[in-house]
Amino acid sequence: MAGGKLTPRQKMINLMYLIFIAMLALNMSKEVLSAFGILNVKIVESNVITDQRNESSFAQLAQKAVDQPGQFGDKKAKVEKIRVLSKEFNDYLENIKTSVTKDFERDAKGNLPYEEMDKGDLIDRMFFTGDKVSKAGEEFLNKINNYSAQIKQIGGSSIAESEMKKIEARFATKPVYSEKAGANLDWIDYHYKGFPLIATITNLSQLQADIKATESDIMSGMFQSDLVAAASLTAYQPIVVLDKSVFFQGEAVSGKIILGKFDPSLKAKSVIINGSNIQAMAGQAKFSFGAGNIGDHPITGSFNFDEGGKVVSLPINDKYVVVARPKSATISADKMNVVYRGVVNPMTISFAGINADKISASAPGLSSAGGGKFKMSPTSGNEVVINVTGTLPDGSKVSDKKTFRIKGIPGPTGTIRGETGVVKGPKSNLEIATIGAKLEDFDFEVGLNVVGFNLKVTGQPTVVVQGDKLNAQCKSVLSKAGRGDQVTISDIKTKLVGAGSYLLPRTAPVIFEIQ
């Protein structure tokens, strides 16, 4: 069966296939033989759809390789080789299917006479000589084994290790334990020996589905991030990055233009800044020109690329400020616009043009870390005022202040095995799992301890737990739950590590779905 993420339609086909295999131990009724035939038709139809989708994905990749050969050329070449390899393997399997069905007369719709295909002698004679595997059977096994090995050789590091393991497992031909035989059987014996012909045809069609799914997975895994980011170059945003935010009168304004999604293999056709062409480099273009008079000045122009045979121009619009001398302080929280109670907030405090050792700052909970860096640990209240004094080269002083809001840490989200939302797995996983909590989209690293929670199984009483693991009462309630039931972990009580008895706001629940 194909690995990876499957559509509901494919899951249904795979489930039907497993059920039919189990029924092979019974006498094959005409209805079962017909069911195999219908399943084979469904798989073949699904393969056609997958072929069309793969063709469309490759066409997009080929165009990207033309527009940006440095970024997509090598990957496109690897995919081309894999597609050739996949077609050869698919055609080989199709030739086997054609060979063993050529003497069966098809109906007006092109369907085989499924009810007449209850014998397995054609495949048995092809793949086996007595109790041994024939030369044709050995060739069949080698085709399967070599397919994943050649993909690994072609793809190399372009295919993620986890994806390669799925492909190898998908085409593994290791011995399989047979309950009926009470021993391990060779893979080809277990899957092909003595099976009705229509069942084998369906099995070969499923192998073809695995080939097409593998081809799709490789393109998706190898190019997903690239294709999403580069689906259209209009998704890139030119950004002006100045060497510093404010320049003194008479200085040269220096900096660079970069793309919001920097890619060292992406090079513009041309770059224009304030009406002048500048040299385009990999993913950026550096510039330098006179600052001009005191005040605001625009920086305009465009990044120009070739895409799909057309020139795509990305506009550049920014500005810079020229000042005579520093008169106000620059105070900014390094990670956010507010400061949070319960954590140490790193801050940078500076005056433009004044060295860090000539700047002092004061506020409740504020301490210096040296080099213009400070640590803020808010205490009580909803606001904190930071007062800053800077000493100019002539000994005179300038002062400024700024008010920051103080906020509490947001409510965390409950976790099971470190996962949030709906977590799936067998009951045994939940029984030994640790109930945790984490702050999502929070910029600080904080330690969280779960000290209690409620466990609820539908139709069962709620269990109140002290600590972060399921107790005996939980396991007793859980034993009555079945596959598909959901277990809700709610009212999770969470504390900050090292914050004494301080409880965080309400922790969002997490659900475990039993499989």
UniProtKB/TrEMBL annotation:
<dbReference type="InterPro" id="IPR022720">
    <property type="entry name" value="Motility-assoc_prot_GldM_N"/>
</dbReference>
<dbReference type="Pfam" id="PF21602">
    <property type="entry name" value="GldM_3rd"/>
</dbReference>
<feature type="domain" description="Gliding motility-associated protein GldM first immunoglobulin-like">
    <location>
        <begin position="229"/>
        <end position="323"/>
    </location>
</feature>
<dbReference type="Pfam" id="PF12080">
    <property type="entry name" value="GldM_4th"/>
</dbReference>
<dbReference type="InterPro" id="IPR022719">
    <property type="entry name" value="Motility-assoc_prot_GldM_C"/>
</dbReference>
<dbReference type="InterPro" id="IPR048406">
    <property type="entry name" value="GldM_Ig-like-2"/>
</dbReference>
<dbReference type="InterPro" id="IPR048405">
    <property type="entry name" value="GldM_Ig-like-1"/>
</dbReference>
<dbReference type="Pfam" id="PF21601">
    <property type="entry name" value="GldM_2nd"/>
</dbReference>
<dbReference type="Pfam" id="PF12081">
    <property type="entry name" value="GldM_1st"/>
</dbReference>
<feature type="domain" description="Gliding motility-associated protein GldM second immunoglobulin-like">
    <location>
        <begin position="328"/>
        <end position="407"/>
    </location>
</feature>
<protein>
    <recommendedName>
        <fullName>Protein involved in gliding motility GldM</fullName>
    </recommendedName>
</protein>
<feature type="domain" description="Gliding motility-associated protein GldM C-terminal">
    <location>
        <begin position="410"/>
        <end position="499"/>
    </location>
</feature>
<feature type="domain" description="Gliding motility-associated protein GldM N-terminal">
    <location>
        <begin position="31"/>
        <end position="224"/>
    </location>
</feature>
<dbReference type="InterPro" id="IPR019859">
    <property type="entry name" value="Motility-assoc_prot_GldM"/>
</dbReference>
